[in-house]
Specification:
Length: about 140
């Protein structure tokens, strides 16, 4: 059964945020093979605009995330990432724009929340058949 690109993007958002949760909680190995799950799915010119509005190019983001390995490992209860309210739309041949909410915390009731927009393009060979091109995040509720 073939799935739509929007479904591929949703699977990628879910899978990559599970990687982040496992990376920050030190539940996977701190090695290049594990880290490649993140680094290999970003486009060459990938950029992220976090809630601080300080745009980060790919290399800066990779360096920052690499050094954040295990940042949550001593948190009790452990922190989790919940993806909510995913929506997607095709905006061109092999180009998809998605929005979703990312909630980070020990539970859904006690989480920091951000709304994200992400731009993807089709990329054969990537885990979910898509490549991240751009992400823009804003805080929800401050």
């Amino acid at each position: 059964m073939l799935i739509s690109m929007i479904e591929q993007c949703q699977q990628e958002v879910d899978a990559l945020h599970l990687f982040f949760e496992n990376w920050f909680n030190a539940k996977i190995s701190d090695d290049n093979n594990s880290f490649s799950r993140f680094s290999d799915v970003l486009g060459d010119k990938f950029r992220i605009i976090p809630p601080s509005a300080k745009m980060s190019p790919k290399d800066q983001l990779l360096n920052g995330l690499k050094s954040a390995y295990g940042a949550w490992k001593d948190k009790e209860p452990p922190l989790k990432i919940f993806i909510k309210n995913f929506e997607g739309q095709m905006i061109g041949q092999g180009i998809c724009l998605v929005t979703y909410e990312e909630w980070q915390g020990p539970s859904e009731n006690d989480a920091q929340k951000r709304r994200s927009s992400a731009l993807f393009k089709s990329k054969e060979g990537n885990p979910n058949g898509v490549e991240w091109l751009h992400v823009h995040e804003t805080w929800i509720d401050g």
